[in-house]
Amino acid sequence: MTAKQTEKTEPVEDRNALLEKSLIEEYLHEKGYSHEGLKKLPADVVEKLMKEASQYASLKMEEVEARAHFIKELHDDASSLEK
Predict the structure, then answer these.
(1) At 11, phi and psi to the nearest 5?
(2) 1 belongs to a structural domain
(3) Three-class secondary structure of residue 3 per DSSP
(4) Tens digit of pLDDT for each residue in 14-40?
(5) 20 to 30 A Cα–Cα from 17, which one of 5, 11, 52, 82?
(6) Which residues contact 34 (CB under 8 A, 6 or more apart)?
(7) Is residue 67 part of a domain?
């Protein structure tokens, strides 16, 4: 059985993936590196930097999620007071 694509659609990239990528870039930039510049470094250094960058991005994303949850709670509480 073959599935036929009826419409041309562009793949939608996950917003969290975009944020994570940006945060990794931010971390590398703060350390004086870029993705392109990593190609010139030894593999062990690249691995260490990318692990650090991934941890940084994960923590920042958790912070964003926690803030969003907090704001939602504030809005929910405020809307219940208006009723």
Answers:
(1) -65, 140
(2) no
(3) coil
(4) 888 999 999 999 999 999 999 899 999
(5) 5
(6) 25, 28
(7) yes
